[in-house]
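Changelog note: in this version the structure field was regenerated for every chain. One regenerated record is shown below for reference.
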Amino acid sequence: MIVHLASWNVNGFRAVLGKGFMDWVTQTSPDIFGLQEVKATEEQVGDDRKIPGYECYWNASKTKKGYSGTACYTRLAPLAVNYGLPKADYQGEGRVIHLELETFHYFNIYFPNGQMSQERLDFKMGFYDAFLQHAQELRQSKPIVVCGDFNTAHREIDLKNPKANEDRSGFLPIERAWLDTFIAHGYIDTFRLCHGDVPDVYSWWTYRFGARSRNAGWRIDYFFVSEELRLQVKDAWIETTVMGSDHCPVGLKLEIP
């Protein structure tokens, strides 16, 4: 069975509804898709969050309104649904939805942005470590699939202007080193697995300076799988032509028993 997975930082669920979101769902028809930065509670969205054929799981920020938040839509019935990471320090911002499925653990995550302050950068790095520890524990039972906005470009090929951004959170050595560590623990960047070092393919563009029209972007949205799933990855892609947010969707096709 081939499972089609997708992930998209929509930069506001209510905003993207008026920008072709439902057309994208209909055309791509993923089996599971995760959204980041929904920026709304279930009550604020109401019936607009319902999509025929999908179960919806919502994790809004409890610390600040109109901020962060994730959602998952699935046609595959999960065995369990969990919200947040086990460590209390990293709960409350609506950043994590974990679906336990028959053959793998699926994580949809909006990782923190570290640009605001040193305190937020420290929070981001702690969040990264807490996630890796949790994933490694769960991995003992079945493989891991994690998608979402990691808020870090891994290598120079993953952003248009690496030299100009060496001192900016999102491309700091400490953040990139964590991605090295993550990969060293046996997690695979599926886009690079399928496409190698293809350049100039990004998933986020600032709204300023006409960045998207110039393709001056960053690749910060990923699908990673644990090593056990390497041979089951059939394709991975970035939907650079899909508009509606400052991010575009990313996708993965995975063969499961």
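Spot check on this record: The helical segments are 13-17, 21-28, 42-45, 118-138, 173-184, 190-195. The chain has six helices and twelve strands.
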